[in-house]
């Protein structure tokens, strides 16, 4: 009887094949996740009131009201990140960064794009979230003539003083000089958190009233992820069964 050892040998392969890219999350779990971060809730839910620019997410949010209020009152809260590192940003540009921060803290739609990382302020980040080109263009138009000293705000800062200071040798220049165009700006500003897609594709917006239009975008992506991992699993099972079948056939 040499079938048993072979089956035991195949077992780890079988189990490994069942570990999909989703970490085994179902569609509903992907759609009910909050980023694992310093101030995020564990799962999204209604908040009685969110503050000013974060208000659109109040029906279903990953942020708490007190966090959104403090964010608007103290620009360095909660991560000591200084937007105004080359003098004050214009009010229009600052509004876009505040909206982006509300999106980061509050959006309940990021589950399908979360990946694990190790940082003091969070254990997950999102990558390649599809941002609508029109959203990106407006953000860019508001900021392109403002000043910065980095073409990637996600890394490279000098944090010695506790607040981000310009990387050594980097001069203050316009966003236009550092980023060139709208697409490059939206994709690089947070180190690949966003990918810019045409408005005709499923894409996320940071500005909305009423029903959250990003729900449908997240649902579509969650379905795709679960379907891909299911077909990967059934392919693995087929291979294993085929292997066992061939082995048994040779025994006879
Ligand atoms: C916000 O309120 C929650 C409890 O509802 C509390 O745990 C948290 O520390 C508060 N955060 C801030 C920044 O005040
Ligand atoms: C970081 O900033 C401090 C001042 O806060 C400065 O003394 C130090 O030289 C800087 N380090 C680098 C690598 O730029």
UniProtKB/TrEMBL annotation:
Q: Which GO CC annotations does the UniProt entry carry?
A: external side of plasma membrane
Q: Where are the transmembrane segments?
A: none
Residues of the Folate receptor-like domain: 34-204
The superkingdom listed in its UniProt entry is: Eukaryota
Q: Which GO terms describe its molecular function?
A: signaling receptor activity
Entries under InterPro entries matching the protein: Folate_rcpt, Folate_rcpt-like
Q: Which residues form the signal peptide?
A: 1-17
Listed A to Z, the keywords are: Disulfide bond, Signal
* Family, as annotated: Belongs to the folate receptor family.
* Stated name of the protein: Folate receptor gamma-like
């Amino acid at each position: 009887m040499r079938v048993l050892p072979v089956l035991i040998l195949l077992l780890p392969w079988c189990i490994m094949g069942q570990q999909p890219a989703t970490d085994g999350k179902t569609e509903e779990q992907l759609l009910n996740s909050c980023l694992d971060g310093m101030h995020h809730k564990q799962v999204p839910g209604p908040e009685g009131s969110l503050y000013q620019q974060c208000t659109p997410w109040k029906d279903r949010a990953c942020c708490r009201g007190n966090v959104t209020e403090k964010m608007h009152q103290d620009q360095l809260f909660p991560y000591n990140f200084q937007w105004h590192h080359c003098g004050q940003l214009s009010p229009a540009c600052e509004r876009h960064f505040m909206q982006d921060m509300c999106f980061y803290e509050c959006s309940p739609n990021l589950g399908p794009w979360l990946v694990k990382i190790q940082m003091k302020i969070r254990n997950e980040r999102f990558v390649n979230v599809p941002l609508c080109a029109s959203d990106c263009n407006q953000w860019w138009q508001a900021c392109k003539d403002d000043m910065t000293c980095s073409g990637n705000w996600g890394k490279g800062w000098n944090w010695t003083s506790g607040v981000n200071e310009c990387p050594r040798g980097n001069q203050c220049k316009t966003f236009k000089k550092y980023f060139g165009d709208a697409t490059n700006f939206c994709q690089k500003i947070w180190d690949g958190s966003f990918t810019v897609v045409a408005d005709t594709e499923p894409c996320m917006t940071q500005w909305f009233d009423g029903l959250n239009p990003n729900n449908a975008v997240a649902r579509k992506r969650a379905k795709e992820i679960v379907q891909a991992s299911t077909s990967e699993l059934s392919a693995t099972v087929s291979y294993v069964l085929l292997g066992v079948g061939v082995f048994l056939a040779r025994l006879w």
